[in-house]
Amino acid sequence: MSKVILYNFNHLRKNFSTISCYVPKHNPVQDNDIEILQEFIQKSMKMVILTGAGISTESGIPDYRSEEVGMYARTDRRPVQYQDFLKSSETRKRYWARNFIGFDNFSKVKPNSVHYSIRNLEVEHDKVTKLVTQNVDSLHFKAGSKQVVELHGTAFKVVCLSCEAEYDRFYIQERLKEVNSHLFGTSEGVRPDGDVEISQDTQDMFVPPSCESCGGILKPDIVFFGDNVPKIRVEEVRNSVTKSDSLLILGSSLSVFSGYRIVLQAVEEGKNVAIVNIGPTRADKDVKLKINAKCGDILPKIC
Fold first, then answer.
1. What is the Cα–Cα distance from 218 to 220, expressed in whole angstroms?
2. Contacting residues for 120 by C-beta, under 8 A, at least 6 apart
3. Is residue 160 marked as binding?
4. How far is Cα of residue 128 from the mean position of the Cα atoms in its chain?
5. What is the pLDDT of residues 19-33, one digit of tens each?
6. Which residues does the annotation mark as catalytic?
7. If we measure between CA atoms, which residue out of 221, 110, 101, 109 comes closest to residue 158?
8. In the structure, what pLDDT confidence band is assigned to residue 74 with cuts at 50, 70 and 90?
9. Which end of the chain is more exposed for a tag (fewer CB within 10 A), N or C?
10. 214 labelled ligand-binding
11. Dihedral class, residue 185 (left if φ above 0, else alpha if ψ from -120 to 50, else beta)
12. Can you name the CATH fold of 27-302?
């Protein structure tokens, strides 16, 4: 008889209910900062918003780099590298096993007040011409935003690297449950892309997915570390920034160049640029307006 691997759901549920455990230490927002950001938004008529993991921490999804609470501070594990995923069947098996165990809980995460505030700026107040997110959690779509570019892809779509067939991630999850019926449960903790820690036994017993059309390698439609953002997506963002009058960055340290170059373009083109983030960002020296605050403490008070 196959060995059954059991996990405890209670710790993970507790983590999601106590979302503040993923938000870095921060000071209360100042009234003056609220007034400054409100004036920035009021003057903006064609605004591009760029969001990062710092807004999803308030929904219970950790970021990578925050001091003490980010994934790099909590574990020595690092995200899968694109070339490793391509070259190694063991790497793919390990990735898919961890993603399979974590996906059910990851997919149930709900938007928070920041996501809804951004939605209101776009849909109710017609301020936002494009919302660019570095997150792969699709929480902006869940909140009702329309003009969304998922810069680094989405965890909710799967693509074949051979024939380019596309699959809904929920469909793949059901397929995986059928062929991995000997495994069930979840692990403690979750990562920004839905990954989790699992035992070596679970990994060894896991059966990874393959393309139904050609038998090729399946990969979530996510830009892995070491991969490039598709050119068509880069061009869409670049054109949106050019047509805008302002850029608002929310919850991103801008450590990844794909996000930072958006700021550089906006500055070069003379757009008004503002950043709201807990802690320093890569672009602090490039912009005139930086507010050190939790997005959930300031944006809902304006929107």
1. 7
2. 303
3. yes
4. 20
5. 567 777 888 999 999
6. 152
7. 221
8. low
9. N
10. yes
11. left
12. Rossmann fold (3.40.50)
